[in-house]
Amino acid sequence: MKDTNPNPQKRSGRGDAVAIERYGKLFAARTRSMTSSAMRDLMSITERPEVISLAGGLPDTSTFPKESYAALMSKLAAEELASALQYGPTEGLAAARECIRFVMAAEGITVDPDDVIVTTGGQQVLDLVCKVLIDPGDVIVAEGPTYPGAVSAFTSYEARVEQVPIDADGMDPELLRERLVQLDAEGARPKFIYLIPNFQNPSGVTLSAERRKAILDIAREWEILILEDNPYGLLRYEEDAIPSILEMDGGESVIYLGTFSKILSPGIRLGWVTAPRPVLEKLNLAKQAADLCASSLAQHFVAAYIGGGGWPEYMASLRRIYRDRRDVMLESLTSEMPEGTTWVSPAGGLFVWATLPDYIDTTDLLARALRENVAFVPGRAAWVNGDGGSSLRLNFSGADSDRIREGIRRIGMVVGEQVELYETMVGGSAGAASVEVTSDQTEGARVVPIAPQKRRASGNQG
Amino acid sequence: MLALYLSHHRNAEHPATKGDGLKIAVLEGGRSLERGVSLRTGGRVKDALARLGHEVVSIDADTSLISNLREQKPDLAFLALHGRDGEDGTVQQVLDLLEIPHTSSNAAASARTGDKALAKRRFRAAGLPTPDFYVLDATAVRELAAVELVPTIGERLGWPMILKPALQGSSLGVALAREASEVPAALLSALSYDDRVLFEQYCPGRDLAVAVVGKPDGAVAWPPVEAIPSGDQYDFQARYEIGSAKFECPADLDEATHARACELAVSTFEALQCSGVARVDLILGDDRDLTILEIDSVPGLTQTSLVPLAAEAAGIEFDSLIELMLDLAVTA
């Protein structure tokens, strides 16, 4: 695009003090939760090509067949162009919703396409659900740790996020019940329980069938909803699938969120939601106000691709690639990480959650790791209260096996360095004493603790 | 001054220079942990330079830095780099060798200011007040079991004390240790950012910053600015998030304190032989004593940075500040 004005008039930098005061007053109260952080800034370095980033949540889109894409888009141009370039219905194109029925059926979930709204990515569902359900101060109960992007969506509506720590089988229903009782005593109003039941982001943990049922029973008893976020369910590398909470529920208490981001492309920005009818109708109105409809072009693309029959094979190839990368990551962790480190061995998904000795702060460790050109996500991002300081999330879908091996080698080196330094300082084997040691990953060990570990208070001067 | 420089300097070596402006390379980004802050500073600087009619070339400070500079042949380099490489004299040395004038202090002064331990030793040598401190490095911790000195350091500095990496800005890696048992973890955090760590006496008080301008006829200070964080710390978020700190510019100080802050800042600038524009951070203690924490020779110019606010308090708007920095660079 040619810039016809070589010297576009930009606002001058005058009046910073006035601007800070002026804009500071104009911002809505809910923006107080929209903050930057040192960690977010550190993440800007991970974009540099020399950095092996195990930080993102990126699927590997490089394997999508170019020929398929070219053929699909040509067909679209020849047959559906006017419609693809046009607005569509708020709930989404019928053909796209039919594809969603097909995709959900691949996971054993039955859904009527009329009960589906196509959204602009799964993230929009988080936003719309809050828009429809949350008043300032309302409570959302989430797993601890949880997906940081969900917390951002929730807190931007001034929700109070209460996290219930998870273990190797996910959220403990008894801890959930205790928390609900506490909240009730405070007069707090929980609106929904946010769960990622399959290969949770960030922990990799899967919520057991028994606990799904028990949590659903609690939700019904307390007349609150469950928001079941299932981006990774089809990325299962072993074991049998566990029925979704939506299926267990039968349409009474569960809002279900799906997305094409991890099973086709995050770039097409398409997700979906199904919910009890009264909620779905409100969500439709909210979506209409937000963006009228999801991209028609993207919906036509999905309909043509999935309707064309190539998707199951593509999914099988993705599963093979990711399973191999997961195995490489787990093997590398076993060989490279010092004693005192634990991690979850996920049966699917994109992430491994590792926990280091509690004296190591993974936000600071990231600074050290970046000096070795490797990156991960520090665990504190997954907690609202500053917990999780000794944990980190590692992604195995976005880098090839060689880079995963090298990345984990470097992380192992810097963790080893810190363990050694600490042991020199306090004497003895500090790491092994403080944290349960992982067993052989080949036995499929799922290692607790996933729960937070308190760290020292930190301050600042200068 | 800039016009004079232009008339002498623009020649066949710089065919890319057009119009009345200079060809200015804005060095930003880099591999430092403060890359994000640097890009924010760089963005504002580039906008201002374009408004001032200069030709702007953006250069990310990486392995192609030198080849880019040789190829672009800028008249002048504007340093918007923060942290390692940008503030420790490394890039300044590159520019000095390539004979490209730049907006920062020279390599030697930058190396002194970028290293908090070196800077504080200079403060002491010049008789300037700064909190007591000790420095330990990773090798001493690892090979000499130097952590055994912590109780002694505690006796001398008192508790709590501040631990901070010698080479790091924006409060990254800074921790407060309230007792000896908190030192190992705090030390581990600080050592993540640099191999040397300062143990510094904790001085509670008001956070003041004074911008100092190295004019040809002597350094002058602009009115002190006070940052009042919304939370209990002037941390990374308070520094860079609109609404996370309030800024008093000029700071509400009595006349004597105002004068003393300016005097100390100018003395600091001169003791470290800085040039251009630098920022001196001070604490006004509860006992009304002023102490110098550090000096930053490549101060941030983001929307919430203190130097633009100080300039504003002195009646100098942002574009004029940038123009002044160019002017100082060509006269250095």
Q: Main sheet of chain B, how many strands, which sense, barrel?
A: 6 strands, antiparallel
Shape of chain A: globular
Taking Cα atoms only, what radius of gyration of chain A do you get, to the nearest Å? 23 Å
- Could you tell me how far the N terminus lies from the C terminus of chain A, measured between alpha carbons in angstroms? 46 Å
Instruction: Give a short account of the largest sheet of chain A.
Output: 8 strands, mixed
How many DSSP helices of chain A?
16
Number of DSSP E strands of chain B: 13
Helix proportion of residues of chain A, in percent? 40-55%
Largest interface: A-B, 48 and 72 residues
What is the average per-residue confidence, as pLDDT of chain A, rounded to a whole number? 87
**Order of strands side by side in the largest beta sheet of chain A?**
2-9-8-7-6-3-4-5
In quaternary terms, these chains amount to heterodimer
- Total number of helices of chain B: 13
Low-confidence stretches of chain B: 10-19
The fraction of residues in strands of chain B falls at 15-25%
Question: Count the strands of chain A?
Answer: 14
Structural class of chain B: alpha+beta
Helix amount of chain B: 25-40%
Cα distance spanning the termini of chain B: 11 Å
Order of helices and strands of chain B: HEHEHEHHHEHHEEHEEEEHEHEEHH
